[in-house]
Design goal:
267 residues, Rossmann fold, five-stranded parallel β-sheet, two-stranded antiparallel sheet, 11 helices, 14% strand, globular
Length: 267
Amino acid sequence: MKILNNLEEICKKYRRELFEKFLVVGQGHPGSCFSMLEIIVTLYYKNFIRFDPDLKKFKDKIIISKGHAAVVLYPVLRDFGVIPEKEWENWGKGKESILRVFANTSMPGIDATSGSLGHGLGIAVGMAYAYKKNNIDQKVYTIISEGELYEGSTWEAFLFASHHNLTNLNIVIDENSLIILGKTDNCLKLSPIKKKLEGFDFLVHECDGHNIMQLEKAFADVTGKTKVILAKTIKGKGFSIMENKAHWHYWNKLSDSEIQICRKEVE
């Protein structure tokens, strides 16, 4: 298990590794992955998702509702010794690997098969309800995309979480203001998101989703309510070619010079 201490350097390391993997695999959703990287690193490396090194298993659950970005978990799970190194190395190289562009529960450390937007929060709410009802000491974290606020099932899950006061549930909304169709403000305005969520009597934090100190403070806040973190992020964070560009929801072919620019930016 290769656990490092400098979280900013870890984020840069994972951006490098994921970028190189996207080059090899030739597909994926880099914009969404890079917008939520600091969120994932904070959750795992600050032990909010508790880890048992003997069992090589996590005690708490994480549901990546924006399943197109779940590949961001792969290098983290590898470094915690949950996914074997060879699975990461083989992926995209024409060799046998359990890894795919969309994660699924056949992979160690993946708690839900996701990708159909609007389902992940319902799964997380169901888990949190079962753990609370049975007095099981497990927390549930879910990361949803801003675009999933367009799904009615998301609001149904909010209603259920509020009614049952799921204090073991932590919802992160990756608010990068973009979906594949463009800016959310131009598609269907969502703001003020915070006021809407406070209407459910949730504890709502707003923070810079790329600032690890702010994220840590928000996750660490002890409360008797369901917690929602509105993480303001940049789609494609770390790569000037991708940042704040809706078409980088999907992988795009890059020229040699563009590849070199991207590599230099995460050195």
